Amino acid sequence: MIPAPLAWLGVAASVLLVVGLPLQLAGFLGGPVTSFIWLPMLAFEVPLALWLLVKGAAPARAPSA
How many Cα atoms occupy the beta-carbon half-sphere of 58 within 13 Å? Predict the structure, then answer.
């Protein structure tokens, strides 16, 4: 449904957040770094939203009998 590079950007952004947010809660990360870890997710979600608005998603196929 979406281009592979955009999907991989989403995976990488999610991994960064899965690692970074617990470190922030534990007190190992602080300052502006905690805001910058959200930028890759922003770079994924905005183009994804535009892609889905323009291209849409393939309709689900009806199950064959």
Answer: 5
